[in-house]
Amino acid sequence: MAGITQKSIGIAGIASGMGVTHLAVTLANYSAAHRKRKTAVIELSGNHAIEKMTGTSEPGEWNRVFYYPNVKQYHIAEILNGDYEVVVFDMGNAYYRIRTEFLRCDEKLIVGSLAPWRKMEYEDFVLEEMGEDRWVRGMVFLTQYGMKRDKKDFIKAAGVPIYTLPFVREPVKADKTCYEFLDSFLL
Question: Is the pTM of this model over 0.90?
Answer without folding.
Answer: yes
